[in-house]
Amino acid sequence: ELLGEYAERQAASRRVLIAGIMAMVVIFFILLMSLGSWRLATMSFLSLPIALVGGVLAAYIASNGILSLGSLVGFLTILGIAVRNSIMLISHYQHLEKFEGETFGPKLVLRGAKERLAPIMMTALTTGLALLPLVIAGNIAGHEIEHPMAIVILGGLVTSTFLNLFLVPSLYLRFGHGWKLAT
Asked: Do 53 and 159 form a contact (C-beta atoms < 8 A)?
């Protein structure tokens, strides 16, 4: 029975890994379709691992580096939140430039980041507050999946939020000029 449980755990980990790889491919194509530019999609996609750093640190601190199935689901959730916020921010930059006549530069990036600050912070705060009871309750019976997942998501929300508020605007300022040419 112990071998059966171990085999089932390994099979579940493989399924999550395959789902993760498929999710990454889908994420890239969603970025590509949403942003209309290979350069912006690649920029946003390559910044996603930074969003996971907080989740990795939180999982390492909370569970001595042991990743469970719940932790892996938490990482996929963080990727989804980071992508959503990245798309929301970059597409707003594009909107400001294309429809509101804002010229490319620091003023555009600052205005766009300022206007998207509240939605990004609300995503992080509402998700974090919803998961806080699971983290505080600890690893009690019945929460073997939810507790590690909540820890990873909560840690990942911190770096994901910083990523979208500081790194994405800087990267857009560096690589976003001329995005219309690549569409």
From this structure: yes
In this prediction the pTM is 0.83
Would the pLDDT of 9 be above 90? no
Question: At a CB cut-off of 8 Å and minimum separation 6, what does 41 contact?
Answer: 28, 31, 32, 34, 35
Helical (H) or strand (E) element with 75: helix 69-99
Phi first, then psi, for residue 142 (nearest 5°) are 95, -10
CB contact at 8 A, 134 and 146: yes
Instruction: Tell me which DSSP letter residue 167 carries.
Output: I
Instruction: State how far the Cα of 75 lies from the Cα of 17, in Å rounded to an integer.
Output: 11
Q: What is the pLDDT of residues 23-59, one digit of tens each?
A: 889 889 989 998 988 999 999 999 889 989 999 999 8
**What's the rounded Cα separation, in Å, for the pair 31 and 172?**
14
Residues in Cβ contact with 177 at an 8 Å cutoff, skipping those fewer than 6 apart: 104
**Residue 125, helix vs strand vs coil:** helix
